[in-house]
Specification:
five-stranded antiparallel sheet, 5 strands, single chain, 10 helices
């Protein structure tokens, strides 16, 4: 793990601790919203349940609008009086500006380098972290948050795994939600605007597929 990745991990942990100590009520509200009022441990077990909590914390810190000013907990933490240097502030801005998107594995090299294609906003990315790319194969589809750290592209830690067979369902679901967003919220909004505002859409798609909520997935 590089210096910036280590710094990001430490900052993320500090923000989580700060939120738990100062905004416990907001966590409960965000948790209910993120899980669409479902109880995750009633339909997730083992690794999937653990992943669900990792995904929630990632979204809570980076995307959840914690107050009427639509500030994230990154914004609130940076204003809290915590002593941060320029590198820490720059990294937090990178984290704040990042989004979760949907990716498809287009190739896996022998040295485990993985090429990803962004299915929602175009663009290709290369992952070199063997610990994170182990087990991935061509055609796999998942949502994650990619970050430019230490001169390379890395995953933030959140992962929403979908089967290759569900690729079209997920794309159709997100397309419908995006059209609803441009119709009712922001007529000039881009896909990036939508994903930053509603990054929880990937968890909702994940829940619907697990529970077989076909009317929502189409």
């Amino acid at each position: 793990m590089g210096k910036e990745e280590n710094l990001k991990a430490g900052l993320f942990s500090s923000i989580i601790q700060y939120v738990r100590a100062n905004h416990a009520d907001a966590i409960d509200k965000a948790y209910e919203f993120f899980w669409d009022e479902y109880v995750p441990d009633e339909f997730l077990v083992g690794t999937a349940l653990s992943l669900g909590f990792v995904n929630f914390e990632d979204w809570l810190v980076c995307d959840y609008k914690a107050n009427d000013d639509k500030e994230t907990f990154i914004d609130i933490y940076m204003k809290s009086g915590t002593d941060l240097d320029d590198k820490e502030r720059s990294l937090l801005k990178t984290l704040k500006d990042s989004i979760i998107s949907l990716y498809e594995v287009t190739s896996v090299a022998r040295d485990k380098r993985v090429l990803l294609r962004d299915l929602l906003m175009d663009g290709e990315f290369e992952l070199r972290d063997k610990a994170l790319t182990r087990g991935l194969k061509k055609g796999d589809v998942f949502a994650t948050r990619l970050l430019p750290l230490d001169g390379r592209t890395v995953m933030s830690g959140c992962v929403y795994p979908y089967s290759a067979e569900d690729r079209k369902k997920v794309l159709n679901f997100i397309d419908r939600q995006f059209k609803r967003y441009t119709r009712n919220v922001n007529s000039a909004g881009t896909m990036r605007d939508y994903l930053k505002a509603y990054g929880d859409v990937f968890n909702l798609a994940w829940i619907n597929l697990i529970l077989g909520v076909q009317q929502d997935m189409g």
